[in-house]
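quick one before i forget lol
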Amino acid sequence: LSRSTLFLGIGSPFGDDQFGWLVAKEIKEMLKSSQRSHIDIEIADRPGLNLLRFLEKDYAQIILIDAVNAGVVPGMQFTLQSHEILEFSGFLSSHNIGVAPSLALANALNMPIDHVLFYGVQGEHLFVKDDVLSDAVKKSVGNMVQMIVNKLIAS
């Protein structure tokens, strides 16, 4: 089995939905100099069922990063393990077929999902057609990047 980790920033070019992309891009920047060949960082525009394509690849761990709409305080962060993701109802419905249904389908097809981890943040400026990021989410980008990079350094 591969020892690589995939960081997949999920989102769109709009409002706080850019969160996953921004976190992925910043992680990429920070790791550029450290030659970590076992880490892939990609961004996906509302991937829907294309998420299954990433699950088919031989990653030891897949970390999904996305904004959520769970009706909590903007900027609140979430960390969910694979099976918690299936029960989490706060995903943005703007991603037609979102993260949870895609993973539920993968699970039903007996594709392994135990290696999937989800990092999310509650968005504030959602369902908009501009690229303005709310202050709460802007702050969360830096916090999330720091947390992820610290975990990587420790591993």
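fyi The first strand starts at residue 5 and ends at 11.
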